[in-house]
From TrEMBL:
Encoding gene (name): bamB
Domain Pyrrolo-quinoline quinone repeat: 439-527
Pfam families: PQQ_2
UniProt name for this protein: Outer membrane protein assembly factor BamB
Cleavable signal peptide: none
């Protein structure tokens, strides 16, 4: 049904004219209400799950009352990459198209970050940047340097670093576009930007460098870089006493609601109560938070490191024990839950087919011991039924400083000429240093192609397409090699190594421009030509 949605956000000077212009990317975003198609609710049947015990802290009615809690089909109407793997389906870290028949990767610019005492600089896992082309009226509210505030086609890169800072760059020149935000603690995960185009930054912290009391999740104003809200990671309600947030947040732009997984084992739903006034250059949030905790069987490995994924009113995540859940966020009830497999940090990716969300997920080798199998699965997101399963042998380093093998890279859901493929990258295949790229048929799980790698990868592969629908994959590895690969066959077009430093972060791509960081303290940009 069609509804007129004023949202839960305060706007100024509303007009039908601005509403009509809303979906044109260059028009102002503020002073607007949107006339848009409401996403359908997936009907769910809530049954007692004897193997799952769960509870909530906070009133679930805050999330469901007076609004349709379902994600729209389009995560954002603005150009860019707004969160880890782009959107609520976690299916794309690329925006736009590449030139036809690309043959090489060329370096464009680089930036040297600071360094934390133990973790160094650059970016770690998952370490993907956000890339945003701001609407002009929003751009004018922010503390962007004048050179870029007045630049007509300004596109901003926003990158969190292990040195504890969030950096901002002009994608074209690599110049810093505004002052960095310093949280003084290493950030391992990926930032999210509000998909409504509001000047809000969402960022989790990976390491308690300045003490456990300061580890958590933060919301910043991008008008002036000030902290608006802090979620403390160490929580007495949680079953696990670790407060990091490597997960990247999702925001439902229709309901002003944020969803997030914590490594403390809690799933967070936050009614943000955002107020944004572009004329006054002010923004605020006043979150009302609901926390979901759970136990599945004898499971004792809570900890959500992957970034939660959603299709309409269904939300999905896995955890450090490999349990997998589907939650109806319109009812705030779990619908199904699968039991323990092994640590699962790669994010679930979703592909809807005829109204059914199919999930693709995989595990590391961790709880299995020094060797085992990365368990790759396709799952029906409505029922939890496993459609197929494939086990790939992998190794891991255990002990005080473990370095796991298996699936840490979030897979590619193929589109266009690879629409039949799901592509996984497996770490520590056959040997501790080696890896494997594996393309499987989505329907059957049968192998289509494989490419054995001399050096493994935690970095997630990214697929890009030209205007004819031909696919190309960018894959980075643990010694800093960057591959440009034909998606259909796995054939290498070119490989380049610019710094000889581990790339465990994941790239984001805007048209022909790749932005990535390594563990050696560099953020850099490449051009696909």
């Amino acid at each position: 049904m069609k509804i007129i949605r004023f949202g839960t956000t305060i706007f100024t000077s509303l007009s039908l004219l601005t509403a009509a212009l809303f979906f044109q990317q260059e028009k102002d975003l503020t002073n607007v209400f949107a006339l848009e198609q409401t996403s359908d609710i997936i009907p769910t049947e809530i049954k007692e799950l004897s193997h799952l015990s769960y509870g909530f802290q906070g009133q679930t009615s805050m999330i469901t009352k007076g609004q349709i809690q379902t994600f729209p089909d389009t995560y954002s109407n603005l150009p860019g990459v707004f969160t880890f793997r782009g959107n609520h389906l976690r299916d794309s870290a690329a925006y736009g198209l590449v030139n036809e028949k690309p043959s090489q990767i060329l370096k464009q610019w680089e930036f040297k970050t600071g360094s934390s005492p133990r973790w160094g600089g650059g970016a770690g896992w998952t370490g993907q940047p956000a890339i945003v082309k701001w609407a002009n009226d929003v751009k004018m509210t922010m503390n962007i340097n004048g050179e870029f505030k007045n630049k007509e086609n300004f596109v901003e890169v926003i990158y969190a670093s292990l040195d504890g800072k969030v950096y901002f760059f002009d994608i074209e020149s690599g110049k810093q576009s505004r002052p960095a935000i310093d949280i003084k603690n290493p950030i391992k995960g990926s930032v999210s930007i509000d998909p409504r185009g509001y000047p809000l930054l969402y960022v989790g912290q990976g390491i308690p460098q300045t003490g456990n009391s300061q580890i958590g999740f933060r919301i910043y104003s991008l008008i002036d870089g000030k902290l608006l809200h802090f979620v403390k990671g160490l929580d007495s309600y949680a079953y696990r006493g670790w407060g990091a947030f490597d997960s990247a947040a999702l925001v439902n732009r229709n309901t002003d609601t944020l969803f997030l997984g914590g490594e403390n084992g809690l799933f967070y739903s936050m009614k943000l109560n955002t107020k944004f006034d572009a004329k006054k250059k002010t923004i605020s949030v006043n979150p009302q938070t609901v926390k979901y905790r759970y136990k599945i069987g004898n499971f004792n490995h809570q900890g959500i490191e992957n970034s939660v994924a959603s299709y309409k009113n269904m939300m999905y995540f896995t955890d450090n024990g490999g349990t997998l859940q589907g939650i109806d966020i319109a009812k705030m009830k779990p619908v199904w839950a699968l039991g323990m497999t092994d640590d699962s940090d790669a994010s679930i990716v979703i592909e809807p087919q005829k109204g059914i969300p199919f999930l693709y997920t995989g595990t590391e080798v961790d709880k299995q011991g020094s060797k085992g199998n990365s368990i790759l699965r396709k799952v029906n997101g409505l029922t939890g039924k496993v459609m197929w399963k494939k086990e790939i042998p992998a190794l891991t380093i255990l002990g005080e400083n473990p370095v796991n093998g298996g699936l840490l890279a979030t897979p590619i859901i193929g589109k266009n000429d690879i629409s039949n493929q799901i592509i996984f990258t497996i770490a520590r295949y056959k040997t501790m240093s080696a890896g494997l790229m594996l393309s499987l048929d989505k329907e059957t799980g049968k192998e289509i192609w494989r490419r054995e790698m001399s050096n493994y990868a935690w970095s997630s592969p990214v697929a890009v397409y030209d205007k004819k629908g031909n696919s190309y994959i960018v894959q980075c590895d643990s010694v800093g090699t960057i591959y440009l690969i034909k998606g259909k066959t796995g054939e290498i077009i070119q490989k380049k190594n610019f710094y000889g430093s581990n790339i465990e972060a994941s790239p984001a791509i805007y048209n022909n421009t790749i932005v990535i960081a390594n563990r050696g303290g560099r953020i850099f940009s490449l051009t696909i030509k």
